[in-house]
Each structure stands twice: as C-alpha cells, then as structure tokens.
Amino acid sequence: MVNVLRLTDVSYVRDRRPILDGVTWSVEDSERWVILGPNGAGKTTLMKLATANDYATRGTVEVLDERLGKVDIFELRNRIGFVSSASARRIPANELVRDVVLTAAYSVEGRWNEHYDSIDVRQAERILAEWDLGAYADHTFGTLSDGERKRALIARAVMTDPELLLLDEPSANLDLGARERLLLMLSGFAASPSSPAMIMVTHHVEEIPPGFTHVLMLRDGKIQAAGPIADTLTAESLEATFDMPFELSSTDGRYSAVARPKP
Ligand SMILES: Nc1ncnc2c1ncn2[C@@H]1O[C@H](COP(=O)(O)OP(=O)(O)OP(=O)(O)O)[C@@H](O)[C@H]1O
C-alpha cells in the first residue's frame, strides 16, 4: 500500500509566526479527506506542502513514499493532481475545453502544434464525458461558467491518472445547482476504487461530498480533530474549530451546520 501522505510534527513558520504548528497527519490511498477550517487556519499552506510546492520549516513531509527535500520534486508533482483557484488563471481563454484536458497529458497549458496519441485523445473524450463536459468539448475555456470551469480543471487534473488528487475549495463561488452538480460528481468519483486518494479543502460542512471518508479540522495552524468523518465531525469539534456553538445534522451522508441559538 502506498503511503500517500505523511506529515510528522510539521511546522511552517513565517515572520516568526507558526502558520502550521506541530501537524502530524497521514493519508492512505483508499481514503478521501476533507480539510475543514476557518479563514487563515493554514489549509492552503498545508496543500502547498502536500503538493510539494513549499517546504516545512520543521518536521518531515513524505508524499507518495518520497520524502520532500530528498526527491526530484518535478517528477513527484507529475504524480499529483491539484486544482486551486489559481489553476484557471493558467489556462488560455481561447483554449478548447477538449485541449484543456488533452494537453495535461503533455504537461502543457495551451495547445501549440503537438501531436497527440489516439490513446490520449480517447482518454480525454472519456474524461470529458465523465465530468459532463462532452457538449462543451469544442467550446473555449473562456466561455464556460464557473461550474463548468471547475469541472474542466478537475478533468484536466485526472487526465494524467494522478496518485493523489487535491482540490482547494472546488465549490467556492458556485451557485446552488452548480455546487450540487459538482458534489454529485465528486461523490461518484470518490466512490470508485480506481480513483486516487483525494484531499479537498472547504469552509463548509454542506460541501462535503458523500463518500468522503475522513476529516481534518484545522484552526490557527493546529489540528483540532482528525479521523473518520462519522466519528470526528461533531458539534463539539466544529465549535473547537470555528469558535462558536453549532447544531450539526446529517442526512444521507450530507451535513449541515447552523449556529446554536443562545439559551
Ligand atoms: N508565505 C507567507 N508569509 C506570511 N504569512 C503567510 C504566508 N503564507 C500564509 N501566510 C498566512 O498564514 C495564514 C494561513 O494562510 P492559509 O492561506 O494557509 O490559510 P487558509 O486556511 O487557506 O485560509 P482561507 O480559508 O482564507 O483561504 C494566513 O494568515 C496567511 O496570511
């Protein structure tokens, strides 16, 4: 079994401030994690370490059985899929959606004169259909709605068959329908045994796709709680993480939290 991610007593300090503080956390390949926490908790910083885009100040970070600092990070990054709000900015607006996905196989953003193997073309077609983008394959990326863009970026990220897929707030800024469509697709993708280990950052329990297995709750750079969602996501852990009392409910694997009224 591949050790997908292992952080051991990791701290990340900037301007003498611990942005991550003593984080110990591991992810196995069958697990699908949600990282939940308020603004400024350190979630994106954690993503940067997990995608080998930055280094810890203290402690060790191992990604896909490789220890950061002792591995060619460019090779390692090819094994990781990552979608963040910055991903869309790197895609040319006039790029066809088909090529947004296809060019991932060649690690380029924007088609030039490359020749693509038919096996890659077929894989791109399959993934476009899987993420409900078949009808948009010949549209340009710049004309897509935010929800369609998110799906196109995730489709691009899975084109290379990554061993770890990280999604930083994939449903931020989406309308209700687009959010629900995306969550259904993420849920379906998470359920497939052939899918990679997944880590998704969100601010909202409502955005946890059913089928995600674990939650890590972060506040001020420290882990408040981590483990299987069913045991770990509670009114108490939410209060510890967001510093206010909540009522938490769940139906069919979907969660909802509202502030607990004052007695
Ligand atoms: N390189 C850096 N230098 C100084 N401060 C930093 C640096 N990187 C992050 N921070 C600070 O660390 C804190 C955590 O940032 P981070 O982006 O990881 O939080 P987050 O949980 O993703 O927040 P949000 O939910 O608002 O996106 C913030 O206060 C941020 O300003």
Automatic annotation (TrEMBL):
It comes from the Bacteria. The keyword Nucleotide-binding applies. The keyword ATP-binding applies. Residues 5-245 form the ABC transporter domain. Keywords: ATP-binding, Nucleotide-binding. Pfam families: ABC_tran (PF00005). One of its GO terms (molecular function) is ATP binding. InterPro entries: AAA+_ATPase (IPR003593), ABC_transporter-like_ATP-bd (IPR003439), P-loop_NTPase (IPR027417). PANTHER family: SKFA PEPTIDE EXPORT ATP-BINDING PROTEIN SKFE (PTHR43158:SF2). This is ABC transporter ATP-binding protein. It comes from Leucobacter alluvii.
